[in-house]
């Protein structure tokens, strides 16, 4: 596998040359993620020129050939390139007349290398501007949850606004970003490995009755295909909206948030993103105190964002449709609790290595740690209490 730093250096110099930064001093440092990132190596970059200093961030793909197939990596990288090169300019044009405090914030984009095995994206380094990540081992608090769903609502509102301003253009994008599920890719070995993943999750439960019900639901062959499709109203969903993909900055007495990592943007349901961040980023106690409040805050924020973009919420996504989507999608929280949550809360020592030549689907199967057991049991308890299980 080629050296990630060398790949970055070669592409970085091309980007700097294209922007006219011919005379410069460049310092590149690898960033340790502590198991929070699997597909890429991350770097911070300081560039000093004659009259300007650039503080940049980059990520370079490191997946093995087998994991590229498992993760459908080509689609991930194509999607990310599309977002930065095409979607963001469209969205920024839609919100150009908004006050700065009401805009959805995108990090400044510098370049994308789409060469196979060398996929690299270079952005502004938001950490250097005071933004910080939130510990993936901590349940969200109200303030971080509040600003996260506000940012999500603004992101979804731009999708509705694009559909209103350019119906044909939106339809083409929605068709291109449609989730596709290749059943043929799931051979018997992969199916057996998925069952192993499910059983490891279920092993933390004491109630056999719940295990049987969850097995029956999760072994539905159409589960993944159903889960990733839009319900009442399609939007361009983020697809991996967890706290690790949000950066926060103190602003006065409050917080501001910037969403990052757009590899999984797809045509989906707004509620999918909302459920993902709530259940992947909170514990049972938080949801007991704030679940209903956070759900309501998302929808209120969406209404406000839509109105600022001259879109009528009642016409595009009435409350009745929102609540119907929540009811239909809530059982699928169990799917993400089994497949995604283990990697969201995995400790550094147990984090899967996607750059290994021996990596395959089984690499996604993580031994349940103490935090996962607590979180998973809490999700099951919630779904039982709400009559879902």
Automatic annotation (TrEMBL):
SMART domains to which the protein is assigned, alphabetical: CHK
Signal peptide: none
Transmembrane intervals: none
Annotated CHK kinase-like domain residues: 121-308
Pfam families in alphabetical order: EcKL
Superkingdom of the source species: Eukaryota
InterPro entries given in the database record: CHK_kinase-like, EcKL, Kinase-like_dom_sf
Name this polypeptide is given: (African queen) hypothetical protein
């Amino acid at each position: 596998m080629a050296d990630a730093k060398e790949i970055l250096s070669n592409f970085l110099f091309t980007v700097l040359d294209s922007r006219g930064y011919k005379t410069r001093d460049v310092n590149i440092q690898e960033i340790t993620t502590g198991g929070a990132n699997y597909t890429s190596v991350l770097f911070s970059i300081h560039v000093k020129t004659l009259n300007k200093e650039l503080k940049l961030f980059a990520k370079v793909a490191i997946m093995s050939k087998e994991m590229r197939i498992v993760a459908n990596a080509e689609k991930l990288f194509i999607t990310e390139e599309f977002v930065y090169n095409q979607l963001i300019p469209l969205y920024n044009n839609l919100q150009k007349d908004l006050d700065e405090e009401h805009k959805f914030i995108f990090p400044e984009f510098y370049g994308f290398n789409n060469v196979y095995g060398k996929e690299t994206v270079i952005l502004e380094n938001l950490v250097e501007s005071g933004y910080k990540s939130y510990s993936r081992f901590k349940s969200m608090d109200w303030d971080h949850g509040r600003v996260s769903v506000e940012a999500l609502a603004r992101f979804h509102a731009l999708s509705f606004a694009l559909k209103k301003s350019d119906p044909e253009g939106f339809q083409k994008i929605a068709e291109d970003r449609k989730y596709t599920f290749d059943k043929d890719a799931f051979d018997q070995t992969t199916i057996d490995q998925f069952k192993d993943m499910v059983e490891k999750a279920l092993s933390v439960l004491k109630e056999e009755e719940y295990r049987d019900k969850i097995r029956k639901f999760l072994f539905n062959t159409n589960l993944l295909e159903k889960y990733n499709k839009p319900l009442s109203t399609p939007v361009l969903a983020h697809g991996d909206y967890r706290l690790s993909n949000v950066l926060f900055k103190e602003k006065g007495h409050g917080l501001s948030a910037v969403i990052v990592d757009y590899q999984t943007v797809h045509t989906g349901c707004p509620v999918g993103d909302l459920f993902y961040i709530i259940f992947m980023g909170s514990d049972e106690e938080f949801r007991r105190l704030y679940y209903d409040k956070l759900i309501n805050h998302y929808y209120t924020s969406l209404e406000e964002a839509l109105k600022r973009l001259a879109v009528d919420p009642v016409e595009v996504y009435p409350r009745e449709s929102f609540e119907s989507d929540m009811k239909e999608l809530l059982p699928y929280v169990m799917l993400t609790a089994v497949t995604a949550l283990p990697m969201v809360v995995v400790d550094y020592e147990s984090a899967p290595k996607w750059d290994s030549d021996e990596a395959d689907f089984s690499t996604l199967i993580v031994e349940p740690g103490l935090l996962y057991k607590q979180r998973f049991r809490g999700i099951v308890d919630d779904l039982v209490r709400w009559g879902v299980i």
